[in-house]
Recover the amino acids of this structure.
């Protein structure tokens, strides 16, 4: 999920901050040179240009020796290279720099702009520390760090909301996981629907679990195949290029590398996914969805395209999925009894 994390730190964040001033009708403002360079560095990280981002961050540190954003970039670059100790060193430097670089309080537009940029830089540093802890397998500590973020920040930090949901799920705390999901409804990363389904299975709600899984089957059928331990059938590929097929399989493998133990620990969870996946109605609509989306990618055009869009809209209709899920769950059988009291993450 690393690329997704970087996507909200570069140009997207820059434009979101500037839009705030435009909406309030304030005077024109502009970021300083170091801020612009750090935004560009994050964009480079998102594009996979890690060495270029690293070089740009070093340039920023020449100008401003304790720049939080630049130290954060270097920490993330080290994390990607697998040097967790170096990543920790840079991120700790970024945290220590927060006090010396904190902008003064002030109401002038330029001061407000600087403070917003600094605040998001601090939040991103916490996010990166959480990523390091997740990579190190320190899930409890990662939860503690992410819980320090204010709820108002999660719309701008969708990676944090999604990972917090996943960590709560791993900790068998479905209520908190589903609450975290509400903070990132507009950023449904592949695997999120499966996390939501697992939460509903833990809660014993088969119908809602089926609704979430059917959404997951549409978004990433490869994950369903990884969960049940079967190869992805040709129908889910539908002529997609080898590169795309390989990427989707890798996403599924990465998801299960983190979530396999949790899925296996929940009574009946994998069998429920298998039964739902193999249900004739579900299988038919999943294959149809894959075929339609691939035809849209090919750009069929004309009436065929309009018909395809209409059918995709019908397949995705929440009311339809909800009503048919009740019937389908009745046919595949109920979930086995679940733990009455889910595990609570330590406060």
């Amino acid at each position: 999920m690393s690329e997704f994390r970087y996507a909200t730190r570069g140009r997207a964040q820059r434009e979101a901050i500037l839009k705030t001033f435009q909406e309030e009708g304030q005077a024109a403002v502009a970021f300083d040179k170091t801020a612009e360079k750090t935004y560009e560095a994050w964009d480079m990280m998102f594009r996979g240009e890690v060495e270029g981002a690293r070089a740009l961050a070093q340039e920023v540190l020449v100008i401003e020796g304790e720049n939080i954003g630049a130290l954060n970039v270097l920490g993330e670059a080290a994390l990607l290279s697998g040097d967790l100790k170096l990543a920790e060193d840079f991120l700790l430097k970024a945290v220590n720099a927060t006090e010396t670089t904190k902008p003064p309080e002030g109401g002038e537009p330029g001061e407000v702009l600087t403070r917003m940029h600094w605040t998001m830089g601090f939040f991103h540093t916490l996010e990166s520390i959480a990523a390091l802890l997740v990579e190190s397998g320190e899930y409890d500590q990662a939860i503690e760090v992410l819980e320090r973020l204010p709820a108002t920040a999660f719309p701008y930090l969708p990676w944090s909301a999604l990972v917090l949901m996943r960590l709560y799920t791993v900790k068998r705390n479905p209520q908190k996981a589903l609450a975290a999901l509400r903070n990132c409804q507009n950023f449904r990363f592949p695997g999120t629907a499966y996390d939501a389904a697992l939460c509903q299975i833990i809660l014993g709600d088969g119908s809602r679990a089926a609704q979430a899984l059917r959404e997951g089957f549409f978004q990433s059928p490869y994950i369903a195949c990884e969960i049940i331990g079967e190869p992805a059938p040709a129908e889910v590929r539908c002529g997609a290029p080898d590169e795309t097929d390989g990427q989707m399989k890798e996403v599924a493998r990465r998801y299960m590398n983190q979530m396999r133990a949790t899925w296996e620990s929940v009574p009946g969870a994998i069998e429920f996914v298998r039964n739902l996946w193999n249900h004739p109605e579900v299988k038919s609509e999943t294959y149809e969805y894959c075929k339609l989306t691939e035809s849209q990618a090919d750009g069929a055009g004309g009436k065929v395209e309009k018909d395809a869009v209409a059918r995709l809209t019908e397949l995705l209709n929440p009311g339809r999925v909800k009503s048919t899920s009740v019937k389908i769950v009745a046919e595949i059988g109920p979930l086995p009894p679940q733990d009455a009291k889910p595990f609570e993450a330590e406060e």
